[in-house]
């Protein structure tokens, strides 16, 4: 109800949020806050997004149910699990291996068979699986990585936070042929999208 009042009006998205148990994606010290409408810390210094933001970003992606979706930034796996209820298949990538294995165990425990994972630098997308009808990035970059828009199918939609530590906006890019329409939708705060794998340092 709170999320609906705050703008999540798509009934499929509301249903997906209802059916994915967020407590499965939150670890011990924060379990009692699993159903609070706030972001929470997860391992490797990252965060599981606020349910409202997960709902709005899922809604911005305009999913009908048959799409092939790329998510960059698996984190806890919560957003990927929500997307798995809204699309045909979700390809989710994460640069922190420990986060990815925890997320994989959660997908298996929930019987989510349409989520596939990869340990990689998601700035480069998943070239072997491209093009994607939808792309969602859940970490913020100063600019939209060209490597990702290149993997967006004709008519495809990509949603991601763009900006620096001071100010970030959820942007939606819609591809028509070689044209990309850009919309600025919502002010947000996300962890940074970092290039490379953790061992290489990582640059914003
Ligand atoms: N969607 C997640 C949100 C996690 S926070 C959830 O629902 O819990 C964003 C995640 O993006 C972090 O786990 C971070 O490690 C990851 N990330 C940042 N830069 C990345 C990159 N270049 N490639 C893949 N993952 C990245």
From TrEMBL:
Database matches in InterPro entries: PCMT (IPR000682), SAM-dependent_MTases_sf (IPR029063)
Gene Ontology MF term list: protein-L-isoaspartate (D-aspartate) O-methyltransferase activity
Broad class of enzyme this protein falls into: transferase
Matching SUPFAM superfamilies: S-adenosyl-L-methionine-dependent methyltransferases
Reaction catalyzed: [protein]-L-isoaspartate + S-adenosyl-L-methionine = [protein]-L-isoaspartate alpha-methyl ester + S-adenosyl-L-homocysteine
UniProt-listed Enzyme Commission number(s): 2.1.1.77
Matches recorded under CDD domains: AdoMet_MTases (cd02440)
Compartments in which it is found: Cytoplasm
Keyword set includes Flavoprotein: no
Keyword terms of this UniProt record: Cytoplasm, Methyltransferase, S-adenosyl-L-methionine, Transferase
Listed GO biological process terms: methylation; protein repair
GO annotations of cellular component type: cytoplasm
Active site (record annotation): 49
Chief site of localization: cytoplasm
Keyword Transferase: yes
Biological role stated in the UniProt entry: Catalyzes the methyl esterification of L-isoaspartyl residues in peptides and proteins that result from spontaneous decomposition of normal L-aspartyl and L-asparaginyl residues. It plays a role in the repair and/or degradation of damaged proteins.
Protein family membership: Belongs to the methyltransferase superfamily. L-isoaspartyl/D-aspartyl protein methyltransferase family.
UniProt protein name: Protein-L-isoaspartate O-methyltransferase
